[in-house]
Write a structure and sequence with these properties.
Helix content: 25-40%
Number of helices: 9
Largest sheet: 6 strands, mixed
Strand order of the largest sheet: 3-2-4-5-1-6
Structural class: alpha/beta
Distance between the termini: 16 Å
Length: 236
């Protein structure tokens, strides 16, 4: 096996969701710098789930469930595929709500707490789509997307997994945190498949290093995919 093949993973079947982005062409315009993502708290309707399931879900959880659902529908991938979830801020709205309740009422409700933990978004996606392969939640520091991606890619590079369902999501920052919020913190989510083989790859691009900023990573993938949503990424 060559040094290059040891570091090559293949990305396919990208699905995305963000407020104000309604069509694939809108994503292409965004990738080309001709459209901006909206800093809004709107969320997917999740009409494929029951009202009871979705009624208390946050923006990040709804976006995560939506992109995983879209990817499973698009690819028909095995429900036994392992998932890796990457986020920088996680359930920041739910956590703020819990902190307020704790300060004001000196109590934390178990149901509220369960929806605020690090793995809540991907756990809810696994329930909604009946994914049985297990999942991991990787929380990176600001602009450290590469570290989360590398953690996911390591599983296919090592041969431990043939395929990984990679998910990234972050939600809008509550107004209470806007003063300390990193600039450009926009809500969006995407999912894609990582694998060690190039089956059915139609369009390929080599990326010398996966960007540390998730927006830049998504833009680089969209630009090269057009209709096929496939890319080759070479990790350094």
């Amino acid at each position: 096996m060559t040094e290059r093949s040891k570091k090559t993973v293949f990305l396919s079947s990208l699905t995305c969701w963000a407020p104000g982005i309604a069509a694939p062409d809108d994503w292409k315009l965004w990738a080309m710098g001709q459209k901006s993502l909206c800093v809004e708290k709107t969320s997917p309707a999740l009409e494929f789930t029951s009202p009871l399931f979705r009624r208390r879900l946050s923006q990040i959880s709804r976006m995560t469930v939506q992109v995983v659902h879209d990817l499973v529908e698009k690819t028909g991938c095995s429900r036994n595929t392992k998932m890796i979830f990457i986020s920088e801020r996680g359930e920041i709205g739910q956590e703020l709500s819990i902190n307020k309740t704790l300060i004001e009422e000196k109590i934390v409700m178990p149901a509220t707490f369960s929806l605020s933990v690090f793995n809540a978004p991907i756990a809810l996606a696994s329930i909604a789509e009946k994914m049985t392969g297990g999942y991991s939640a990787v929380y990176t520091a600001h602009n450290s997307f590469y570290d989360g991606f590398a953690a996911a890619a390591a599983q296919v590079l090592s041969g431990r997994e043939k395929e990984i369902l990679l998910v990234y999501a972050d939600e809008a920052v509550p107004k209470e945190y806007e003063a300390v919020c990193p600039s450009g913190a926009v809500p969006f989510a995407f999912a894609l498949l990582l694998s060690g083989t190039a089956a059915d790859i139609q369009q390929i691009i080599t990326i010398d290093a996966v960007p540390s900023v998730p927006e830049l990573f998504l833009k680089s993938v969209i630009k090269c995919l057009d209709s096929s949503f496939c890319a080759e990424c070479q990790l350094n």
